[in-house]
Amino acid sequence: MSGADVVVTGVTGGLGGRVARRLAERGVGQRLVARDPGRAPALAGAEVAAGSYDDRDSLRRAFDGAGTLFMVSASEDPDRLRLHANVVGAATDAGVERVVYTSFFGAAPDCSFTFGRDHWHTEELIKGSGLRFTMLRDNLYLDFLPLMVGADGVIRGPAADGRVAAVARDDIADVAAAVLLNLRYGPMGLSAASSLEGPWWLRALTAQLMVDESWAIAQRDEGRIDRHLLVGAGLLLLVCWTTGTAVGVFAGDLVADPESLGLDAAFPALFLALVWPQVRERSRLLAALGGAAIALVLMPFTGPGIPIVAASLACLVGARRPR
Questions:
Q1: Whole-model pTM above 0.90?
Q2: pLDDT in tens, 114-140
Q3: Can you give the residue ranges of every domain in the chain?
């Protein structure tokens, strides 16, 4: 089975399907796991694999080669913890590096909401597995609340003092997609760790300035990071982003449509500024131009993500050719 950036479970349900669609819109390579592959959504750049929470071997095959697993908690079942253990065990067997799990607000061994106890035990299972993890503790779904109303108009359930902070599944999916997309900061941080100096609190503060742009600008030969460039670029971006946000909030009505000002060209311009130092050698310039041509040719005929992958491979081959 080919590799995928992310494996998404629960894709035939309300939450997993939403997350998968958001990742597809952003060109993320993913594998959709479903008990019945025929019911999985047809999404560009996504492959489908059969897998059931009740069958650990099928899950191991479905997870094979993936770096990150988005694990949607199982539906109501008296054997729910065993099903979750199958997922975690299969992820470990398949060599998955990180799991993002949809847990529940206030998960604890003595949670008033009984499912909250299941989620706590599952969190503990994940923590003890050796996998890196992210726990998303959402609350009751807004669209589920009307189904809990009795004929007398009363909602009854094990909710202690009765307070609830319900949330829309679209909002949960937005957060989950953002988490999955930003996992790249893990390896970026590791690559820069040896360049950060000083006490732990200073290194932690400096790390907050690491974004795609500052990290790229600070790159030097043999993968080294220039700490001064990282801090300088990060501070400049922080000031610009904060100022731009403030202007948009307080004076947005006074500013013309950004597209009419040509601001939609900002990202291509930034990309060119970052890539220019890397293509000053003739062989690398030719490789970059070849990759761009391949991407332009493939864009009308292929799904999201494929043109950039093909272009990147072409650039890698071209840049490594003997001079």
A1: no
A2: 889 999 999 999 999 999 999 999 988
A3: 4-186, 197-319
